[in-house]
Write a structure and sequence with these properties.
Helix 2 runs antiparallel to helix 3. Helix content is about 50%, strand content about 0%. The radius of gyration is 18 Å and the shape is elongated. The protein has three helices and no strands. It starts with 11 loop residues before the first helix and ends in a 12-residue tail after the last helix. The chain is mostly helical.
Length: about 130
Amino acid sequence: MSDIKNPGNTNPLLAGLRGRCPRCGTGKLFDGLLDITDQCRECGLQFFGADAGDGPAVAGIFILGFGVVGLAWMFELLVQPPLWVHAVVWTPVILASTVGFLRPLKGLTVGLQYKYRAVDEPEKLGGQ
């Protein structure tokens, strides 16, 4: 494709974290909250070969698990609230941070796939 919009200085990993196309850095990567779009509207990069799988979810579980357990432990030591307060405090924190982490981690995964293999080649699906 000769008319590809690529300024040459787009970092695919940062673009993925921002939810942008890893090639041009301007087109939207997501169609909705977590659905990856079929094709970038700016440069035409197709995302048929992009497969984030469970990687972003597992990474998010490890990051959030470590962080939330540490914060809950500190909260318990400092305040010593009843258990229902823990449920009221940590349930929305876990839900909001899960949604907040999953989208950038999924975009990062697509950016990594673009950087290290072609995402627009269906025969390379899964890095084969």
